[in-house]
Amino acid sequence: MASKRGALIVLEGVDRAGKTTQCKKLVQALQQVGRPAEMMRFPDRTTTIGQLISAYLEKKSDLEDHTVHLLFSANRWELVPSMKKKLEQGITLVVDRYAFSGAAFTSAKPGFCIDWCKKPDVGLPKPDLVMFLQLSPVEATLRGQFGNERYETSDFQKSVQQKFEQLMKDPSVNWKVIDASQSIEDVHDNIRTHTLNTINTAENTPLGELWKSE
């Protein structure tokens, strides 16, 4: 018997926008109302590829920029079979960062265009909803632990924000912008409302493919 599929929900934003906190709260809230839900985060640092990325982000190793971008993409692809299986079982996946971060962060570096950055991720499972936690890079720098990892500089985060704004102009992706400067509870309420509406729609529609032209 075919069961209704779970929804693929992604939270994006600049560093320190509160994505991880909100992902955890959302999964808890869904479980409390009887919706099967699990959290995933990218990069997944537990895999072999993820460990290479982790060392790079923590400034313990250096890698060429094209190589890093392709490793991030490979890290997403290696988890696709598991993601599809869970979605088919009716589990909603709440994902902390996805291909949009990959495109925004790499294209913020000199010499990269967004189109090239998107190509390795064409055909990934397409999110039913992408919520962008909007926080000014100035506010982000005031939050705890900012600066610990490679990309956490104010100027770079400003460039990343601009690239996200470009990506959000794509009408093929269901984007919602959330004001992340609100209280944690207010942000959560917004996210939960959008998610519950999306889950009801996703149950009866097939999973799409990201950035795949019709």
UniProtKB/TrEMBL annotation:
InterPro entries: P-loop_NTPase (IPR027417), Thymidylate_kin-like_dom (IPR039430), Thymidylate_kin_CS (IPR018095), Thymidylate_kinase (IPR018094). This is Thymidylate kinase. It catalyses: dTMP + ATP = dTDP + ADP. It comes from Kryptolebias marmoratus (Mangrove killifish). One of its GO terms (cellular component) is cytosol. Catalyzes the phosphorylation of thymidine monophosphate (dTMP) to thymidine diphosphate (dTDP), the immediate precursor for the DNA building block dTTP, with ATP as the preferred phosphoryl donor in the presence of Mg(2+). GO terms for biological process: central nervous system neuron development; DNA repair; dTDP biosynthetic process; dTTP biosynthetic process; dUDP biosynthetic process. GO terms for molecular function: ATP binding; dTMP kinase activity; nucleoside diphosphate kinase activity. The keyword ATP-binding applies. NCBIfam families: DTMP_kinase (TIGR00041).
